[in-house]
Specification:
The chain is α/β, with parallel strands linked by helices. It is built from three helices and eight strands; from the N terminus they run E-E-H-E-H-E-E-E-E-E-H. Helices cover 23% and strands 26% of the residues. The radius of gyration is 15 Å and the shape is globular. The termini are close together.
Length: 171
């Protein structure tokens, strides 16, 4: 199920199986551009890392992608820039001020941030946000939105992603 609110930049999908989440990641990979920031939110086991792994494969990253919970940041070279995977889970008790996040939010990088609420003071104002919600029977609700202060690039990627997913998404 795909529900789209035309008045705002928000869309929700129902992911019944891992392949649904992987499909959304593969569609996202087709429209990604350097300078895009994607926040991934949701409880443990909701699909954030599965989405990131599928995205990495779609971007031709051959190394295994694991959530960098203990290292906080892992980078993967791309043809243009890097895929930067930040997992801020360990910053729940503080410590965000000891990491130079600006170093990673460079215009040539694509940044994926898990647990962004633990580094909210350091987030760029322009981003896309995916919220993963656990539902009954192992299903997930996945909601995509755009930050209120998103630039034209993030809004365009949002629209291109929806066009890419289009009617191909079956749940």
């Amino acid at each position: 199920m795909n529900s789209r609110n035309e008045g705002t930049f928000m869309t929700t999908w129902s992911s019944k199986k891992l392949e649904d989440t992987q499909f959304l990641a593969q569609a996202f990979a087709k429209v990604l551009q350097p300078g895009i920031n994607l926040l991934l939110e949701g409880p443990l086991g909701a699909g954030k890392t599965a989405f990131t792994q599928a995205l990495g494969r779609a971007l031709a990253i051959n190394r295994p992608i694991k959530s960098p919970t203990y290292t906080l940041v892992k980078t993967y070279p791309l043809d243009q820039g890097r895929l930067v995977h930040i997992d801020a889970y360990r910053l729940e008790e503080g410590g965000s001020d000891s990491v130079d996040f600006d170093f990673y939010f460079e215009p040539q990088n694509i940044c994926l941030i898990e647990w962004p609420q633990f580094m909210k003071d350091y987030l760029p104002s322009s981003y896309l946000r995916l919220v993963f919600e656990l539902k009954e029977n192992g299903e997930r609700g996945i909601t995509l939105s755009v930050s209120d202060e998103a630039d034209a690039k993030h809004r365009a990627v949002y629209k291109e992603w929806l066009d890419q997913v289009g009617d191909q998404y079956e749940s």
